[in-house]
Amino acid sequence: DVKVTQSSRYLVKRTGEKVFLECVQDMDHENMFWYRQDPGLGLRLIYFSYDVKMKEKGDIPEGYSVSREKKERFSLILESASTNQTSMYLCASLRVFSYEQYFGPGTRLTVT
Amino acid sequence: GDSVTQMEGPVTLSEEAFLTINCTYTATGYPSLFWYVQYPGEGLQLLLKATKADDKGSNKGFEATYRKETTSFHLEKGSVQVSDSAVYFCALRGSNFGNEKLTFGTGTRLTIIP
Fold first, then answer.
1. Is pLDDT above 90 for B7?
2. Does the pLDDT of residue A88 top 70, yes or no?
3. Residues B8 and B2: beta-carbon distance below 8 Å
4. Any CB–CB contact under 8 A between B77 and chain A?
């Protein structure tokens, strides 16, 4: 069974802290994605990666960076967390053959 | 750029009612279209998809037909169950080569009451 896991379900951080969100997939997929989900806005793409060490900005990359050192792991980094980054963060990986994205359960991040 | 518009929720129906959630899109060429579902406390999962005009995607009693002429991909189910309560997202993948991104709608929260 395919699986995408995220390091935390809930996270509370203080303004200005550096935050790491980890995502791991066990399907050997090349493409991985980070989204944030906010009520009334749906899912918005932050960054995606199409291979190890490769990344591209999505629609809302400001305030975020990413790291892809191994194929199975894609990390989202908030360099200096701010309250407007309080959100649900979803990671996904892509099976290119069927073009199906597989999502993790999400991390609900609260920045106080 | 590409965009997806879906009906605003929340939608509340009684069990066994007929469901329609509207979705229209703006994109050049021939995008692929998807419906994803998010059950409480979970990530999204693919419900159905259609990759060309007039294709019908179906799964778990849900159906959606890719209508190029009306740029629509409405989700329907003949008889909903309490277990269908979830948030539903319409999404598209643009047709330009190498495009691996999805553009999502804002989501429609569906609640089914017994």
1. no
2. yes
3. no
4. no
Residue B97: is its pLDDT beyond 70?
A: no
Task: With beta carbons under 8 A apart, name residues in chain B contacting A41.
Answer: 106
CA-to-CA dists, residue B110 to A16, A111, B39, angstroms: 37, 29, 10
The total of other beta-carbon atoms located within 10 Å of residue A74's CB is 29
Residue A4 CA neighbour count, 13 Å, CB half = 28
The pLDDT tens digits for B36-91 are 999 998 899 999 999 999 999 999 999 999 999 999 999 999 999 999 999 999 99
Question: What is the token pair recorded at B91?
Answer: 């999404």
CB contact under 8 Å between A92 and B41, yes or no, is: no
Enter the tokens of residue A15.
């303004």
| Tokens 């995408």 found at | A4
Say if residues A4 and A102 touch (Cβ distance below 8 Å): yes
Residue B76 sits at the vertex; the CA angle it makes with B71 and B78, to the nearest 5 degrees, is 155
